[in-house]
Amino acid sequence: MQIDKQASEKLLGQLIRGELPDARGRFGPFGGCYAPEMLMPALERIGAGVRRWLHDPDFTAELGRELRDWVGRPTPLTPAPRLGREWGATVYLKREDLTHTGAHKINNALGQALLARRLGARRVVAETGAGQHGVATAAACARFGLPCVVYMGAIDVRRQAPNVERMRQFGTRVVPVESGDQTLRAAIDEAFRDWVADPEGSYYLLGSVVGPHPYPYLVRELQAVIGREARAQFIKATGGLPDVAVACVGGGSNAIGLFHPFLGDAGVTLLGVEAGGRGPGLGDHSATLGRGTPGVLHGTYSLLLQNADGQVQETHSISAGLDYSGVGPEHALLKAIGRVEYVSATDGEALAALRECCAQEGILPALESAHALAGARRWAQEHPGRRILVGVSGRGDKDMPTLSQVFADATGAANRH
Ligand SMILES: *Cc1c(COP(=O)(O)O)cnc(C)c1O
What we know:
This protein is α/β, with parallel strands linked by helices. The chain has 17 helices and 14 strands. The strands form four sheets. The protein has a six-stranded mixed β-sheet, with helices on both faces. A four-stranded parallel β-sheet has the order 7-6-5-8, with helices on both faces. Strands 1-2 form a two-stranded antiparallel ribbon. Helix 6 (132-143) links the parallel strand 5 (123-128) and strand 6 (148-153). Helix 5 (105-118) packs across helix 6 (132-143) and helix 15 packs across helix 16 (367-382). The relative contact order is 0.15. Bound molecules: pyridoxal-5'-phosphate. Pyridoxal-5'-phosphate binds at residues 103, 105, 132, 208, 248-255, 321-322, 366, 368-369, 393-394.
């Protein structure tokens, strides 16, 4: 979808001034609230709670204290001089990998758990794919004594055993979903079914800037702490702004969080990196912004990977957190108005970037974050001598089983030759 120059400038101005989404949850042509009729009252109640609490001084003070004392914010901005030498650039890393539970997802889970408590919820319902959002939600619910149920596809339960165990240690009930594709999509259906059964007493804690209004807005506001800190830290460290800020895009929450406070800085290029997977073929990647078309998925009108009949496509990425066929509606708008550039990095490029970051900086990034590093590296080569800010959304400890497998396969192949 293309939006002409004049309309684009107007929409960007509205985004910068915080006027989007509008009252109907629209980001220009995208967003909105496409949910079953029986969920509308619950979504409206959450919307009212967001308007009442999110910028209330008591709420923000409590959130700020918890972010500092429990999550460990502000996270550092780390200079990466050896990576910089390799890339021919000045490189700084925003370290969400150093948060409690190891990824940016905790910023959102904490904020929504606080909101759930203010709304008088008796329990929290969530779904998780790889388990990172489930772990963050389980930890936040334990912190505030909120009972929590997490739905997870049966296949994912087997694949992500350590995260299932972590959730259980936090007192969360993990429900394996045996129906449908037995992965994230089936888990979302079951979690919605649970919520529909008790929309008054339950709070649905969504993990990214997707879903029906007000979630894309709510999650963005809770993740924007990343970009606010990074912007101030970058100015303090270098005396100016970066030339580019780079983040990986799955649903899009860490990227929106990093980008949002830079939207009004016309000199700062914003670069989102999607999962290019095994290649551009159908089902081989999850590059929704690069290759998707407009449609409704999980309550929002955005870009998604679908075939000509509107059938949602299978996706692939080596990183479970980027393996989603939709993307947040605000990203769809940022692409349409040309404020953010979106590219993709393949599984192989992400693995190479992960190894380089380990070897050059002693930092093991999540496989998701490695896509941002791969995209940043390529941008650096096309634009020599610039200042680059990379969002490291999480730590890679969770990826060790995948990495051991990949590198064992590579060694095996080399030995056979
Ligand atoms: C979940 C996850 C992502 C992808 O989610 P976004 O909403 O796109 O940020 C990226 N990085 C890490 C470490 C994750 O756990």
